[in-house]
Task: structure prediction
Amino acid sequence: MLLYELDFKMIVDQACRAAEEFVNIYYETIDKRRRVLPKLYMDKATLVWNGNAITGQDSLGEFFEMLPSSEFRVNTLDCQPVHEQATQGQPTVLVVTCGIVKFEGSKYRYFNQTFLLTTHAVPTNSLPVWKIASDSFRFQDWAS
Amino acid sequence: MGDKPLWEQIGTSFVQHYYQLFDTNRPQLESIYTEESCLTWEGEQFHGKTAIIQKISSLPFHKIAHSITAQDHQPTPDSCILSMVVGQLKADDDQVLGFHQSFLLKGFNNAWVCTNEVFRLALHNV
Result:
């Protein structure tokens, strides 16, 4: 295997480890600690929820508060490193999940979610943390 | 389309172009990828234009048609566009299957290329 491809494989492995950890935290937080969920987003992050755009931590906080309590189960997780040509050098990972979710008062539904995660320096922490820059959510069966 | 934000117009045009080529002439999709592009197809990773086109061109069906149920586009902090598509497809005489596909689009030299792409069939609906 070319050295270049080995390097790439290492970058993919790193990206996927970060993504898996993040996804576990994300769905646990949305199900059990909804109030702190906006902290997983960057200040000016955008979530497009079934076609409706919500931007900024404050608006996200209001939105998540209105959302009925949830039970998420992730079935598949895909992730890729995003090349620095597209990100001005900021480490970025594309994460795509699909699974089922039950919101209180509704039946189980299939969903798809796509995240862009970037690292974010924290003054009190020597390691940068991953935060959501962009997020798209859809019910797979949204029309029914 | 005049009132729609730019990223929405670009994303919608890309999606239309992509599925039109995918359904009629897959090797021509080459022009949307670079040597750095990544594709994850049903969990399998492909890196670079050549590997991606080889995969897409060798998919085992003669005829395919996509129908888009919903598409979402949003600009990212790095001036890329994140696009997510949910829809249904029919390959040859197989039954109709749900799918979802995500793209990250980047403007390079006055053209939009796909730097990242993830495809999954929604087999749970079977």
About this structure: Chain A touches chain B at residues 5, 8, 12, 42, 44, 46, 48, 50-51, 53, 75-76, 78-83, 85-88, 90, 92, 94, 96, 98, 100, 110, 112, 114, 116, 118, 133-134, 136, 138, 140-143 (CB under 8 Å). Residues 46 and 55 of chain A are 4 Å apart (CA to CA). The helical segments of chain A are 3-32, 57-66.
